[in-house]
Amino acid sequence: MSETDQKNKKNVPENKQEGTVKKPVFLQIFAIFGIVLILGLYILSLIASLSDWENSFGIFVGALAATVFVPIMIHLIKIFLPKE
Question: Under 8 Å CB-to-CB from 56, ≥6 apart: which residues?
Fold first, then answer.
C-alpha cells in the first residue's frame, strides 16, 4: 500500500456508528413529550369545537401557540446543553 492509501484509511471509521454523534436521551424525551402535547391539544380542540364548549377557541389558540413555542424551547435546550 502506498502512503496516501494508508493516510486515507486512517480517516475512515471502521464501522458507521463510530462517526455518528448520539443525541442525549432526555432531549429525545423532550421531543416526544412536545409531539404528544401538541397532538393532544389539537385533539382536545377538535373535541371542544364539536361539543360546543365555551373555551374551544381558547384551546385552539393554545394549540397554535404550542405549535410555535414547543419546538423553539426544544431547540433552545439543545443550544444551551453542555457540549461533550
Answer: 45, 48, 49
7-49: per-residue pLDDT in tens?
Answer: 555 555 555 555 555 667 888 888 899 999 999 999 999 999 9
Domain residue ranges of the chain, discontinuous segments joined by +: 22-80
Amino acid at 11: N
User: Can you give the pTM of this predicted structure?
Assistant: 0.65
Q: For residue 80, what are the CA distances in angstroms to 16, 29, 31, 83?
A: 28, 16, 16, 9
The closest alpha carbon to 30, from 63, 79, 84, belongs to 79
Written as one letter, the residue type at 8 is: N
- The phi, psi pair for 55, rounded to 5°, reads -95, 20
d(CA 30, CA 22): 15
